[in-house]
């Protein structure tokens, strides 16, 4: 019998880790009513500088010759802390998580599952890192942030507030994610991008450069927002749409297809009382301003900073307005100051000598006075019926006309 007890004791000592003993000691936990590691066997450790450390479960690993464990922190289950990592405050490392390098986990933060925190990353506040997520570089994660599944946060990225980062999302560079934002799928946020509010970015969408996405928009599909672009309000950007340079998309606009919104374009719909503007023109909107103010009885205005303004009385089919305005702007850029070319077919004056034009549904220009005098609703050029509600009124500044004429001469 004595021999059996000796053999059992020998086996127990062989199976214990070097930094653990089969004792239950909770002197390192200030709150005697809260047992660390769910009451698992373990002990309180001492750091290499002689200070009292926190609780380490028997099954966990910590290299106390280089790592540091604060008095009220704990390392549980099969978690490992090594390198020059620091875990302090009420932080808890558990599951199969690894914390190493120069990483710091503190305050009430938790790292668990099979996640890894390393490099010079800092996890604090009430942040939770779990699943198979990896945090590294000099990333800062705080607040009530949750990072899980196979998400990656690295470089100088900062997360705070209550964002959720999950699935295979990646956040890196100097990007910042805050508020209640949700980043998931295979979405990527990088460079100096800023995501906040209740924004949601998913699928294979990318936000980069110094782009800003805030309030409650959605960006998904393979859409990209970059450079100095801004997307906010309740806007939706998806499929293969591109928003970039200094473009702004907000309100309740829906941008999709292969549409490109660029330079200083502004799409601002405010609060539409009915419907959503959908832009799917597979075209470029370049340095334009498109705005819709309530009530819907007001005219829609589309203009650019080159001196071209387009107005429409159409109230319902906003999709049509965007498409026609894009065609109209393109044709205006192609106008030439040549005799017998690009003239009004009624008065024969060149369009570049006029400030006010009409662009019909059949995509022909007329000077406004001539159009107003048309006896019927048929186009003099193609004989197609002209729907006056679908015509666009075009106003061109003298400066634009002068520059265009000089460039053509």
**CATH hierarchy, class of the domain at 302-409:** Alpha Beta
- SSE class: alpha/beta
Shape: rod-shaped
The overall average pLDDT, rounded, is: 81
The name of the CATH architecture of the domain at 302-409 is: 2-Layer Sandwich
Largest sheet: 18 strands, mixed
Beta content: 25-35%
Uncertain segments: 1-27, 270-278, 292-298
Distance between the termini: 113 Å
CATH superfamily of the domain at 302-409: Zinc/RING finger domain, C3HC4 (zinc finger)
Number of strands: 45
Count every helix, treating DSSP H or I runs of 4 or more residues as helices: 4
Radius of gyration: 32 Å
Look up the CATH topology of the domain at 302-409.
Herpes Virus-1
- The percent range for helix content is 10-25%
What does this structure look like?
This protein is α/β, with parallel strands linked by helices and 409 residues long. It has a domain at 302-409: Zinc/RING finger domain, C3HC4 (zinc finger) (Herpes Virus-1, 2-Layer Sandwich), CATH 3.30.40.10. It has 4 helices and 45 strands. The strands form 3 sheets. The chain has an 18-stranded mixed sheet. A 14-stranded mixed sheet has the order 1-2-5-8-11-14-17-20-23-26-29-32-35-38. It has a 13-stranded parallel sheet with strand order 3-6-9-12-15-18-21-24-27-30-33-36-39, with no helix packed on it. It is rod-shaped, with a radius of gyration of 32 Å. It starts with a helix and ends with a helix.
Q: What layout of secondary structure does this protein have?
A:
Blueprint: H1 2-15, E1 42-46, E2 52-57, E3 61-62, E4 68-69, E5 74-75, E6 80-81, E7 86-87, E8 92-93, E9 98-99, E10 104-105, E11 110-111, E12 116-117, E13 122-123, E14 128-129, E15 134-135, E16 140-141, E17 146-147, E18 152-153, E19 158-159, E20 164-165, E21 170-171, E22 176-177, E23 182-183, E24 188-189, E25 194-195, E26 200-201, E27 206-207, E28 212-213, E29 218-219, E30 224-225, E31 230-231, E32 236-237, E33 242-243, E34 248-250, E35 254-255, E36 260-262, E37 266-268, E38 278-279, E39 284-286, E40 288-291, E41 300-304, E42 308-312, H2 318-333, E43 356-359, E44 365-367, H3 368-372, E45 392-396, H4 398-408
Parallel strand pairs: 2-5, 3-6, 4-7, 5-8, 6-9, 7-10, 8-11, 9-12, 10-13, 11-14, 12-15, 13-16, 14-17, 15-18, 16-19, 17-20, 18-21, 19-22, 20-23, 21-24, 22-25, 23-26, 24-27, 25-28, 26-29, 27-30, 28-31, 29-32, 30-33, 31-34, 32-35, 33-36, 34-37, 35-38, 36-39, 37-40
Antiparallel strand pairs: 1-2, 40-41, 41-42, 42-45, 43-44, 43-45
């Amino acid at each position: 019998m004595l021999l059996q007890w000796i053999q059992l004791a020998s086996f127990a000592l062989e199976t214990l880790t070097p930094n653990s003993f089969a004792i239950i000691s909770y002197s390192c936990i200030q709150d005697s009513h809260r047992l660390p590691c769910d009451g698992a066997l373990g002990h309180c450790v001492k750091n290499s500088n002689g200070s009292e450390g926190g609780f380490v479960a028997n099954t966990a690993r910590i290299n106390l010759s280089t790592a540091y464990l604060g008095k009220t922190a704990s390392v549980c289950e099969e978690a490992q802390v090594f390198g020059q990592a620091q875990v302090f405050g009420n932080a808890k490392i558990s599951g199969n998580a690894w914390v190493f390098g120069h990483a710091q986990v503190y305050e009430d933060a938790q790292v668990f599952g099979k996640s890894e925190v390393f490099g010079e990353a800092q996890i604090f506040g009430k942040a939770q890192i779990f699943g198979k997520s990896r945090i590294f570089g000099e990333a800062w994660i705080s607040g009530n942030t949750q990072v899980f599944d196979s998400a990656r946060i690295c470089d100088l990225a900062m997360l705070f507030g209550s964002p959720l980062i999950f699935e295979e999302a990646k956040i890196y560079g100097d990007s910042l994610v805050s508020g209640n934002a949700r980043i998931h799928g295979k979405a990527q946020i990088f460079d100096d991008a800023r995501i906040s509010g209740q924004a949601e970015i998913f699928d294979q969408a990318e936000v980069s450069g110094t782009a800003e996405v805030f309030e409650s928009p959605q960006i998904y599909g393979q859409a990209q927002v970059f450079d100095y672009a801004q997307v906010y309000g309740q806007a939706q950007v998806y499929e293969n749409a591109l928003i970039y340079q200094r473009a702004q998309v907000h309100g309740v606009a829906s941008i999709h297809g292969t549409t490109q919104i660029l330079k200083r374009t502004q799409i601002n719909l405010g609060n539409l009382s009915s419907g959503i503007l959908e832009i799917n023109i597979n075209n470029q909107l370049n340095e334009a301003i498109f705005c819709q103010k309530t009530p819907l009885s007001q005219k829609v205005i589309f203009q650019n900073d080159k001196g071209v303004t387009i107005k429409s009385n159409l109230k319902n089919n906003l999709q049509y307005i965007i498409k026609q305005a894009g065609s109209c702007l393109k044709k205006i850029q192609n106008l030439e100051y040549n005799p017998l070319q690009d003239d009004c077919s009624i008065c024969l004056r060149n369009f570049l000598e006029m400030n006010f034009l009409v662009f019909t549904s059949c995509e022909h220009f007329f000077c406004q006075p001539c159009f107003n005098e048309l006896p019927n609703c048929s186009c003099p050029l193609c004989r197609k019926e002209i729907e006056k509600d679908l015509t666009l009124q075009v106003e061109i500044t003298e400066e634009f006309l002068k520059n265009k004429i000089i460039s053509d001469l």
